[in-house]
Amino acid sequence: MNSVPPNPNSNSTAASTGGVAGASAGAAAAPSPTFSPLYQQIKALITQSLQSGEWKPGELIPSEVELANRFKVSQGTVRKAIDELAAENLVMRKQGKGTFVSTHHEARAHFRFLRLMPDEGVPHYPESKFIEVKRMRAPADVARLLDLKSGDAVIFIKRVQSFDGVPTIVEELWLPGVTFKGLTAERLVEYKGPMYGLFESEFGTRMIRATEKIRAVCAGAEDAQLLHIPADTPLLASERVSFTYGDKAVELRRGLYSTERHHYHNELN
Amino acid sequence: MNSVPPNPNSNSTAASTGGVAGASAGAAAAPSPTFSPLYQQIKALITQSLQSGEWKPGELIPSEVELANRFKVSQGTVRKAIDELAAENLVMRKQGKGTFVSTHHEARAHFRFLRLMPDEGVPHYPESKFIEVKRMRAPADVARLLDLKSGDAVIFIKRVQSFDGVPTIVEELWLPGVTFKGLTAERLVEYKGPMYGLFESEFGTRMIRATEKIRAVCAGAEDAQLLHIPADTPLLASERVSFTYGDKAVELRRGLYSTERHHYHNELN
DNA sequence: GAGTGGTCTAGACCACTCC
DNA sequence: GAGTGGTCTAGACCACTCC
């Protein structure tokens, strides 16, 4: 419980002394060129526990004092580690209650990755209609973006999402077959709520960040039909790659967004 | 030098005791419903100095130790205040050198607000060609977004931006006439570098954040001509409102982006 | 060597939650 | 009242920059 687990950095004073980690305790050590502060090492250890599922999404993690005892560092050092994890949305702090593992089963998480907002009214989550779910071999471009080999097994999903009954998004997804083994159309259809919640609960894969590229395109005949709009209507085309722990790409999503009554919202800081 | 300036919060222990601010020094004070921690008050004071121009963009601000002495708080409290200012890109810390006021005259600042990236090659800043610069009365929609009254004086700018000689962006800007009094076409044309650098240096107005709404549209005849593309080509339409200190809206910018060889890039965290 | 921000500790007390 | 995260202090030492 209070031993320091395998440590990614070799210059950990906590690990090397195995005890109270005065910053100067191991002062003889060379000012290593790969210096990594103690709180970064603690952060990595906590991240490992998150990734391994020691603490599951939605659960309370040990208190700062408890973690400080476990890792033999001060509470301040644990705080600084957790500060960064909270800034990255991996955990959520609640004063008086504790620190919780973030989860996609939660209202506030639903719009972290979906930035399409209604022009009028409050945002709400769309309903999904699945058009196609199948296993296939990864085309070259998909394989490249998901860090797979061309021809590796992937799961392909096509769906339409509607707000208030108005079809607004046509989306194609590719998922690595190995990671999402056992994902079926039935499971997708019966599951209510955001897909990332399903991935998190049933496949132990939590999306933690994504990159997105956006263009303008004209609707093709098939997509226009699915969205109930004239062909050649301009649409936003988003290509999004989502990553889980360790910067591993685990989803490619290509979406077409109708911006008749919605817009893509962004904050620039 | 070491007196505490007017304070936005009434429960400042630093202000009320006028001296060493032990968190418990004024312990008799009610657990006020508008509690604001000391570091937030210090942050507000530093922000005031930034806004007033006491420290100008690009300049070094006083060291943490000096600020701690000035405000009669510990260095740790100043650090926490500056941490947040750095996270908001208002200042930049450089270890061993000090903390500098952020400026738009700087490579890294150029792409904070312009998210259009080339599909191939490294990002670089576009050249501008000004189509029109005039003073006018604010239309209702512009007035609303800039927090002006309909008919108030605004400066209108229309320009085309090109990457490697390829026209890619058509942009219309509206600026409050009062804030940007004296801005002329000549000054814009002769100024090399990003417009926000000019605004910062010549008008004392620094853009610190923006909100953006993006849609897909079809190019009209006039815009198609400016961008050397066929009419009805799909384009990204961005509407951006930029804010300076105090969340004051000081620019409305409507841009049309060709996404033939570029894409809008976003990171979702 | 002097000055800067960066890390780390130990200890005190606060606001908030739950009982 | 006990437990949690949140704030604040004072002091030590570190990495880095500039001279």
UniProtKB/TrEMBL annotation, chains A, B:
Organism listed in the record: Duganella vulcania
Low complexity: bias regions: 9-27
Annotated SMART domains: HTH_GNTR, UTRA
Residue ranges occupied by any HTH gntR-type domain in the UniProt entry: 36-104
Signal peptide: none
Region of interest (Disordered), residue spans: 1-27
Pfam family, one: UTRA
SUPFAM superfamilies: Chorismate lyase-like, Winged helix' DNA-binding domain
UniProt keyword annotations, A-Z: DNA-binding, Transcription, Transcription regulation
A single BP term in Gene Ontology: negative regulation of DNA-templated transcription
The name this protein goes by in its record: UTRA domain-containing protein
Keyword DNA-binding: yes
